[in-house]
Amino acid sequence: SLIFIFFFFIIPNVFKRKKLIYNAIPIFLALIPLSIWIIPMLQDPSTVKGFYSPHIFYNLDLLSLINATDVPLLRNNFGENSNYIGLPILILCMISMIKKLNYKYINIGFILLFILAMGSLIKINSELLPIITPEIILTFLPAYKSMRGTDRFVIFMMIPIGIMVSNTLQHYIKKRSILFAVMVFYILLSIQLTGEHINVDAPGIYKKIPEPPKKDFGLIEFPINNPIYWLWRADHQHNIVYGYLFIRGKKDKLFHQIHKSIVFDEKLSLKNLKSKGVRYIVSHKNRKENLYPDLYPLAKRKNREYRNVGDYLNKKDFEKLILLSSEKNANLYMIPDN
Length: 338
What we know:
The chain is α/β, with parallel strands linked by helices. Helix content is 38%, strand content 10%. The longest helix is centred in the first third of the chain and has 21 residues, at 21-41. It is elongated and about 80 Å long. It starts with a helix and ends with a strand.
């Protein structure tokens, strides 16, 4: 988002004219792609009625803002620290506020987003301090309380940060060639690379599914709720039950129902799965469950080491399944019509 500082560089004397529109345009442009995330984040909350938890697990660690993982103040590995902004950039932001170089709503937006990113308690170096932030008030709102990671607001912080950095540089550097070079330097300083490679290649068992991907059927993977399933779908492209993030989904969503049944130690109905369009079951061996029993005060079980499909189906339904393929780490079953 710091590339937006070039918006003010390209248009000469922007801040001398003090036109609100020149601040509004880059903010609007930046919010277009970000709205793709913010809109589903706040809709269809599904947290259990009466359940409450402050945002203290995935909130912003203040040290991570300036703690570059590779080279201090210069190079950060995004895969290791996704919240890094950098001390040089933050100093320019502070100068713009102290010198009153910004519109008030820019400063207010920066402070508000910073508070939201911190979550309910201040965290420094992975340690929660007994200091409550104003954000905790919002955790009582139905739509907001189901949000898991408040540190994601750092993404939105980059919008006012880009404007504040631009304001400071243009205030102190009058020669355009030098200003251009400094802006390029700060943008390069903000580029974060990661050497991590995420392998989305699905195991070979998915290639044994006898039908090509279609919209009229899907598959379910056991044990349930492993995030790797979402990545594997990019490879095999079959519809999967986990295509909707259940924590923020409505309670009538299929995965929410499945998860709740398992947490309460109830067997799944093969007939119900079939009626919902589930045609195949991929059972992965030697994997642990990833349930959320804490969502339910009366939950009867916690995460276990997954053994086989019989963990989730009763014996009668298990025997109905048609084994299509068996590999070292996975089995593929088809749910019969009857």
